[in-house]
Amino acid sequence: MPFSPKRRADTLSGLLFVALFAVAALRIADWPGVRALKLSPLIVGIVLGMAYANTLRHRLPPAWVPGIQFSAKTLLRLAVALYGFRISFQQLVAVGPAGLAASTVMLATTFLLGAWLGIRLLRLDRDTALLTAAGSSVCGAAAVLATEPVLEAKPYKSAVAVGTVVLFGTLSMFLYPLMERGGLLGLSPTAYGVYVGATVHEVAHVVAAGSAVPGAAEAAVIVKMTRVMLLAPLLLVLGWVLARGRARLKVPWFAVAFLGVAGFNSLGLLPAPWLAAINRFDTFLLTMAMTALGMETGVDKLRAAGAKPLLLAALLYLWLVGAGYFLVRSLF
């Protein structure tokens, strides 16, 4: 046990070690140049963790490893549950039937397509395919993190999936505004916002792409957060599907807690400063989890994954951009 009397001090040392990296990631993410690129602390954290894993990891005391693993697993589950404080059921109402339909259809089809393409066509292992599909279909790095414990996947597979999210999410920040300004889309500001919110990966990327068109940012963010809310049902269904043939269904408690927290948040009982503080704490926990994940990811493992995950993410990106556009055009 990581917190048994004999191991408690070493485990806490490992936790503190990861926490110091997370603090550095938060500070770096706040640098003007990094902030301009819309790189969240989560992404900075995994980069720092991977840099450490491939340089100085051999000097880490082995007794500290349980602290890193606790950050990547237990703290991750807690952070996903607390993520519910960022959304409310009122957002489902505010987005309207068209926005909700766009979110649900694009999430479901992208995830299913990713599973089929990855496992059947590209012959990827199940975990890498599903993690990449989750990152593309739901909410980027946070979705990859939330899906990992359901699959019981290896950390380096999550790192591969997160890498694809960073690449294509960053591309979206520039591609979507260019398409709209070039007259290729012909969407109203609201429709453009729904298009961005239903198809772009990270929340930060959605904000950047949505803000490029006046009057589109609010719709983009609301639709995006409905996709985040749909993460919990996706994880519950995925857990049920994976449990078929097993003796016992393993329910991801953090997904249930996520919905419960979102429901509580919908009551509007907490003052805004409290919510802001909780969300800052949650961002710190997520950054710790990402950093710990990076610390478990060596270059040799990424090299072994090959180019297929990137190809899968590229195919899913084409689906998001193309099918998402025609879906939004049909709804507005």
Describe the structure.
With 332 residues, this protein is mainly alpha-helical. It has 16 helices and no strands. The protein has helices at 8-29, 32-36, 41-53, 65-82, 89-121, 126-137, 141-151, 155-181, 189-199, 203-211, 217-229, 231-243, 253-266, 272-295, 299-305, 308-331. α4 (65-82) runs antiparallel to α14 and α8 packs across α16. The longest helix is centred in the N-terminal third of the chain and has 33 residues, at 89-121.
Write out key terms for the chains shown.
globular; single chain; mainly alpha; 332 residues; 16 helices
| DSSP helix fraction | over 70%
What is the string of helix and strand elements?
A: HHHHHHHHHHHHHHHH
Write down how many β-strands occur, each being a DSSP E stretch of 2 or more residues: 0
- Tally of DSSP helical segments: 16
Report the C-alpha radius of gyration, rounded. 19 Å
Topology:
Blueprint: H1 8-29, H2 32-36, H3 41-53, H4 65-82, H5 89-121, H6 126-137, H7 141-151, H8 155-181, H9 189-199, H10 203-211, H11 217-229, H12 231-243, H13 253-266, H14 272-295, H15 299-305, H16 308-331
Helix pairs in contact: 1-3, 1-4, 1-14, 3-14, 4-7, 4-13, 4-14, 5-6, 5-9, 5-11, 5-16, 6-7, 6-8, 6-16, 7-8, 7-12, 8-10, 8-16, 9-10, 9-11, 9-16, 10-11, 12-13
Q: Care to give the gist of this entry?
A:
The chain is an all-alpha fold.
